[in-house]
Amino acid sequence: MDDSQRLRYSRHLLLNEFGEEAQERLLRSHALVVGAGGLGSAALLYLASSGMGRITVCDGDKVDLTNLQRQVVHRQDSIGRPKASSAAATLATINPEIQVEALEERAGPERLASLVRTADVVLDCSDNFATRHALNKACVAARKPLVSGAGIRFDGQVAVFDLRRDEAPCYQCLFAEESRSEEERCATLGVFAPLVGIIGTLQALEAIKLVAGVGESLAGRLMMFDGLGSRWHEVRLARDPHCSVCGAARVAA
Ligand SMILES: [Zn+2]
After folding, report:
1. Could you tell me the distance, in angstroms and rounded to a whole number, from the CA of residue 137 to the centre of ligand 1?
2. Which end of the chain has less neighbouring CB within 10 Å, N or C?
């Protein structure tokens, strides 16, 4: 780190549990963020300001006026622009020292698999089951840690699937693709703006801890937040030995 970086990250360097080595690991790390909506906005702002050295942000949508209530990485003058490049432009104004790659596309399963292989940590900030399950499969196959977030109305949840570990459950163990529940969309149900900020920020916190090797990860637990009552709930997660995604991958390995 040079002098300017020591100043920029000085409040991390002061933390006994973080310090210079963790900051350097963070600066050498690469996060893949899928979705630059509400969750992605909060996650991206903190990943960039904290010094995640390389960020790939992938989103196929364009910014519109209804996004600005909660998608805080985008600006009024970004309306009509692709979300990925709008987000990258904002991040460059916060921390020009990191590398941000904007992918203006809705990535399908094969594309996600190749993107996941290059990343150290993956943040699922998407808003649909197809992407969530494709991203989970890619993370299981490449054994990459997946930080999953979701938020609708006043309710949010965060989970970490540390797929580098043999005993780790995956997203499919928890939310089986076959028993697909009704997809809940912000556009029809609404979403409380600060809720996605809380969940996305927690995703950034977990992603940073994972790559910097700091603290205890949320892996193996699901945290749920009720924004209307301001209450957190937590449940332990167990691997489903018959899981069609991680069970099969591990037998093959
Ligand atoms: Zn599984």
Report:
1. 9
2. C
